[in-house]
């Protein structure tokens, strides 16, 4: 949910927390990471949409429809290359997984991708990227990320360049559009 250069590598993610919010174990993720790094069957470390759906369905058979998987694939394909890195693949697995609430999964991804991990602040640029990805994933066409950021800041009455993660999450959880998707 951030620019490619600012996103941490998978090995830097909080894998214990990842295990708690999804239905896969930490060891399963590590095994997948090793396979991805060393197996040409994963597309030479660049997974296209067809391979993504095949691998996802092997991991969690029948959990999502093709349409849901497609939406997630394109929302997490940050550079619009038609291919996913392993981190992007895991982001899709997290958002599609039913092991926790949608808000818990979004919180996890925000925490992993946030370039300002200190003190749980979300900067304006990253906040707009998250709004954009939510819009893309949920097919929301009538919300502009910049305008949505301005609405969020107006509710806090604070700094226009950053908000706390908790303020951000409360905003999307109670937003008239986002709340229809986030339970």
UniProtKB/TrEMBL annotation:
Coiled coil segments of this chain: none
Molecular-function annotations in GO: calcium ion binding
Entries under PROSITE patterns matching the protein: EF_HAND_1, EF_HAND_2
Domain EF-hand: 64-99
Keywords from the UniProt entry: Calcium
Keyword Zinc belongs to the record: no
Keyword Calcium among UniProt keywords: yes
Record protein name field: EF-hand domain-containing protein
């Amino acid at each position: 949910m951030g620019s490619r250069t600012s996103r941490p590598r998978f090995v830097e993610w909080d894998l214990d927390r990842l295990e708690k919010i999804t239905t896969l174990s930490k060891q399963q993720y590590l095994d997948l990471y090793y396979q991805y790094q060393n197996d040409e069957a994963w597309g030479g470390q660049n997974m296209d949409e067809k391979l993504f759906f095949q691998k996802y369905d092997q991991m969690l058979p029948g959990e999502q429809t093709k349409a849901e998987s497609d939406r997630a694939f394109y929302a997490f394909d940050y550079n619009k290359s038609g291919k996913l890195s392993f981190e992007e693949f895991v982001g899709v697995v997290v958002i599609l997984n039913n092991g926790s609430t949608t808000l818990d999964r979004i919180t996890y991804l925000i925490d992993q991708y946030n370039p300002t991990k200190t003190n749980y602040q979300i900067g304006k640029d990253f906040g707009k990227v998250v709004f954009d990805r939510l819009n893309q994933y949920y097919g929301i066409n009538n919300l502009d990320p910049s305008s949505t950021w301005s609405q969020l800041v107006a509710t806090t009455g604070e700094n226009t360049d950053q908000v706390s993660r908790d303020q951000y999450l409360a905003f999307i959880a109670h937003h008239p559009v986002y709340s229809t998707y986030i339970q």
